[in-house]
Amino acid sequence: RRNQVGRAVSHSVSPHTSEKAMDIVNNVKASSHRIRNSIATIFGLVALTGCATNAPQDTWQPRGENAQIINNLQWIVFPMAGVVGVLVFAFAAYTFWKFTDRGQPIPSQSHGKPIVEIILTIIPALILTVVGVFTFRGIFELAETKDTEMIINVTGQQWWWEYDYPAQEDQGITQPIISSGQLVIPVGTKILLRETSRDVIHSYWIPALNGKKDAVPGRINLLRLQADKPGIFAGQCTEFCGLSHANMRMEAVALSKEDFAKWVANQQKAYTPPADGTLAKEGEGVFLNQCIRCHQVNGLKKADGTPAIAAPDENVYSGAAPNLSHLMSRNTFAGAIFDLLNKKCRSDVWNASPETIGEKYLAGVSETCLNANDLRAWLRNAPAMKPMYADPTKLVKSGGKYRGMPNLGLTETDIDKLVAYLLTLK
């Protein structure tokens, strides 16, 4: 229609008038195009803000004191930033429309007008001052660790997290507990995480409980966590740390103090070997032949009765592999990227109420609930399930050691036996 108008004008008026008319039509087209793009952008941003309102890694749903401090700061900073953003976009849109080149004289310039320069300096300074005051206060509050009641050592490496609970009589921990994948804590207790790394820089982040804290080789950084109610909270490594950075996850499991005491008692329970003549007993033999080189199971003994001690320092670049003692008391494996529970049982645990989640989590992984497909696939060919530098000949400066779990070349019969054995580690 606009093109028809342009042609009609060009035939009915003088050439000079026709050129002006065509300029007007082209300007209308350009303005219409800019308006459409602006509207599309606004609707796109609005749509994105509504995505994943119940996402497991959501900073807007705090579940602990430290996360609440961050959330309070967000509610101060984001509205201010939103108002500033709207004003800037509105002023820019007005400027684009008002001063579109239509052949008019160049508008007067504000350079050299002190009142304009002073206003444009004072207003941002005041905004930044307000934001800075609340931000600095939040930073100091988050850095407070003197009031913590429990210590857990957290160590990152490619591509999983290790949790080491030192003996703490007041928490019922009489001997060290070493786990991986899932951090288990009591609710209402301020936890001090002492973070470090064995290889490269990682970053520990469980948004429902606190902000991010880097795990740096050779250093110990402190982070305080506290959960208000029982639940499971997802987290993610947020510092690029190599090939499977996106697959380096973690979960924090908050239990009532009574359920946490039960968890501690189970973790400190002595190893019970499988009964002779069972498939699990044969799996214990496969574990001793293949897995003990890297993975420790506390209390496991060799055929001669001597303790079976893993030697990951001789096989793994970082010098450690996940401790598999009580593996089936956890819900995940392989850096928390895979579930030990099948979909139905996992949903039953994750969606449990705060009153029932302790009982369901402490039930562990049964044969009925086992995610056998992923576990068997992992034992069959781990590098195919999770990208890793599993071949030391292809990795510079590996020292002939693995960085990640290699393909062990297990037969299906060996896998059957291993799965049966791992199910006994509760």
What are the SSEs and their pairings?
Layout: H1 2-12, H2 15-49, H3 65-98, H4 114-142, E1 150-157, E2 160-165, E3 177-180, E4 182-186, E5 191-197, E6 202-204, E7 213-215, E8 221-225, E9 231-236, E10 249-255, H5 257-267, H6 279-291, E11 332-333, E12 338-339, H7 343-350, H8 357-362, H9 372-380, H10 382-385, H11 412-422
Parallel strand pairs: 1-5, 4-10
Antiparallel strand pairs: 1-2, 2-3, 5-8, 6-7, 9-10, 11-12
Helix pairs in contact: 1-2, 3-4, 6-11, 9-11
List keywords for this structure.
single chain, alpha+beta, 12 strands
Helix content: 40-55%
By DSSP (H or I, 4+ residues per run), the number of helices equals 11
- The CA-CA distance between the termini, in Å, is 75 Å
Shape: elongated
Q: Which structural class do you get from the secondary structure elements? A: alpha+beta
Mind telling me the C-alpha Rg? 30 Å
**Beta-strand segment tally:** 12
For the largest sheet, list the strands in their spatial order. 3-2-1-5-8
Query: What percentage of the residues does DSSP assign to strands (E)?
Result: 5-15%
**Mean of all residue-level pLDDT scores:** 85
Q: Uncertain runs with pLDDT below 50, 5 residues or more?
A: 4-13
Q: Let me know the largest β-sheet.
A: 5 strands, mixed
